[in-house]
Structures are given as structure tokens and as C-alpha cells.
């Protein structure tokens, strides 16, 4: 994926495993409008790739997600 996102990091290995990580550690990965929009773009982009077999959503930092950032 050539795109760079501000709230999500993506890695696709040679086995076709895509790892998606929320990247807002400073707020315990709380979801905001930007992250939701970027995750949507990420998943849509990964869905179109023939080399991706599975997508793993995992945490980055000390929390998986603190909920919504209202």
C-alpha cells in the first residue's frame, strides 16, 4: 500500500498477512472520525489486493482501544 495514514499503520508480509494497527497511542488508540475514515480506506484497499490472504487487527502501544474519542 503506497498510501500513508496518520492514524493507522499497515504492514503486509510475503505470506500475504496484512497487519493493521491503530496508531494513536497518546490517546490509547481511541477511535475518532479520521481513524474511522482511514480504517475504511485501508480495508477497502486491502480487499482489492490479490496478494493479501488475511488481515490482522492488533494493538500498538499499551492499549488496544479506549473507545471513541468524543
TrEMBL record:
Keywords: Isomerase. The keyword Lipoprotein does not apply. InterPro entries: ClpP/crotonase-like_dom_sf (IPR029045), Enoyl-CoA_hydra/iso (IPR001753), Enoyl-CoA_Hydratase/Isomerase (IPR051683). GO terms for molecular function: isomerase activity. It comes from the Bacteria. GO terms for biological process: isoprenoid catabolic process. Belongs to the enoyl-CoA hydratase/isomerase family. This is Enoyl-CoA hydratase/isomerase. It comes from Paraburkholderia ribeironis.
